[in-house]
Amino acid sequence: MSKDLDIANPARTQAIMNAYGLRVKKSLGQNFLTDQNVLHNIVATADIGQNDNVIEIGPGIGALTEYLARAGHHVLAFEIDDRLLPILEETLFDYDNIDIINQDILKVDLPEMIATHLEPDRPLKLVANLPYYITTPILMNVLAGSVKFENIVVMMQKEVADRLAAEPGTKAYGALTIAVQYRMAAELAMIVPRTVFVPAPNVDSAIVKLTALPPRTHVPFDEAAFFKVVKAGFAHRRKNLWNNLQSLFGKLPETKTAIQAALDQAEIDPKIRAERLTVDEFITLTDALHASELL
Ligand code: SAM
């Protein structure tokens, strides 16, 4: 099999898949990128330099991994599908700065993996062509987790990308928006047509860049509690905040009194829906629920 060509090339991708008899698993969101311009764009958007450690989710047959390894210092990639490991072994044979871990990204202990595989004190970036069936849980885990990325550049379905920079009060605004905007500034880098993937997905895609914001001045008493309140606030989108908080804390009379006291303290109308609350209001609410001893 010719190695003169980048992996991200329709002919080489097909040749690799044929050589290994690989049939893609739709259930794992396997849509391989075959366009070098898109890959250049991803690496440029993430501003990957020789000093950078890069985490990749879902290397597939290595198209993006190869570009990241050329531009960065070290790549740590997580791939769930063990059929791809021998393929990656061959396609990425020439690179000695890549570690592939055969694990589910939703189950992996990221801080532990980073401590084991990456040199400390280097800028850390996350770059991925995400498996679309789990875009939201991956982003929620990454954003609510303790690992801090300088930037995150990810390809996702356009419809989810629209949620990241949404304004309060709009349909697209939700728990994911708040998790992103709590720490990062979101910008749409590029719309990507379905034709550049093999096989083509049945939705349009977008590359989004999330850049770390300077540390917040207004922070909740506990970040895990903040994310719990945000998730609960949006658990049932049609319910108002009062009802969603009752689902979280329970309906005992003393609990109701404590929720009411917290909402009063935070100066938030119980009948409002979570989609009207800004990040700062969710932080104020979290602290008020803490003051009422519910958290
Ligand atoms: N990076 C490759 C590319 O751009 O051509 C492949 C991207 S493909 C959209 C998504 C990849 O994520 C697939 O290789 C799939 O097997 C992998 N994947 C799916 N679920 C995963 C999970 N839970 N943990 C890690 N990898 C996963």
From TrEMBL:
EC number: 2.1.1.182
Positions of the Ribosomal RNA adenine methylase transferase N-terminal domain: 38-214
Catalytic reactions of this protein: adenosine(1518)/adenosine(1519) in 16S rRNA + 4 S-adenosyl-L-methionine = N(6)-dimethyladenosine(1518)/N(6)-dimethyladenosine(1519) in 16S rRNA + 4 S-adenosyl-L-homocysteine + 4 H(+); adenosine(2085) in 23S rRNA + 2 S-adenosyl-L-methionine = N(6)-dimethyladenosine(2085) in 23S rRNA + 2 S-adenosyl-L-homocysteine + 2 H(+)
Pfam families listed in its UniProt record: RrnaAD
Subcellular location: Cytoplasm
GO MF assignments: 16S rRNA (adenine(1518)-N(6)/adenine(1519)-N(6))-dimethyltransferase activity; 23S rRNA (adenine(2085)-N(6))-dimethyltransferase activity; RNA binding
PROSITE patterns xref list: RRNA_A_DIMETH, SAM_RNA_A_N6_MT
Job of this protein: Specifically dimethylates two adjacent adenosines (A1518 and A1519) in the loop of a conserved hairpin near the 3'-end of 16S rRNA in the 30S particle. May play a critical role in biogenesis of 30S subunits.
NCBIfam families assigned to the protein according to its UniProt record, in alphabetical order: ksgA
Assigned protein family: Belongs to the class I-like SAM-binding methyltransferase superfamily. rRNA adenine N(6)-methyltransferase family. RsmA subfamily.
Name of this protein: Ribosomal RNA small subunit methyltransferase A
Species this protein is from: Lactiplantibacillus mudanjiangensis
Gene name, Swiss-Prot/TrEMBL: rsmA
